[in-house]
């Protein structure tokens, strides 16, 4: 959706003029074009996240009912000391917040250990370590819309 800058009326992506006030909308950035991509450095795999969501990050284990939104089991998370529910990542337009859930092996941001249950702002290019599992965070904020819309 795009929001008219003049009257705040909401229109579909691609709408050229506001149906309420007639304002030009072609330069208005639609919602959802900011994206957060997690790159699992050791594997080169990337995961695209949606904005304005809350993701639990961890791994699955035996007898575990709760499955994290971002399950790192397949990437050797156990061996790298990732807890079952290790951290929470909240995504916002253009930035995100990381919260360590008092994980056994801790969380680092750019090499510095962070305090459990405290909001840590993550910027584009920051490196997160869950135990020794390395995640590179890409946060983009571009005007190109269609190809960036979540799959
Ligand atoms: Zn309008």
Q: Return the CATH architecture of the largest domain.
A: Sandwich
Q: Indicate the percent of residues in helices.
A: under 10%
Which CATH first-tier class of the largest domain would you pick? Answer: Mainly Beta
Number of helices: 0
Termini separation (Å)?
16 Å
How do the helices and strands follow one another from N- to C-terminus?
EEEEEEEEEEEEE
What portion of residues belong to β-strands? 35-45%
What is the fold-level CATH name, i.e. the topology of the largest domain? Tumour Suppressor Smad4
Strand order of the largest sheet: 4-3-13-12-9-10
- Low-confidence stretches are 142-149
Strands, total number: 13
Structure class: mainly beta
Domain count, please report it. 2
Rounded mean pLDDT score:
87
Q: Report the bound ligands by name, code or SMILES.
A: zinc ion
CA radius of gyration is 18 Å
Shape: elongated
- What about the largest sheet? 6 strands, antiparallel
Task: Give a concise summary.
This protein is mainly beta. It has strands spanning 2-3, 10-11, 34-40, 45-49, 53-58, 70-71, 85-92, 95-100, 107-109, 112-113, 120-122, 127-130, 133-141. A six-stranded antiparallel beta sheet has the order 4-3-13-12-9-10, with no helix packed on it.
Question: What labels would you give this structure?
Answer:
151 residues, mainly beta, Tumour Suppressor Smad4, 2 domains, 6-stranded antiparallel β-sheet, 5-stranded mixed β-sheet, 39% strand, binds zinc ion
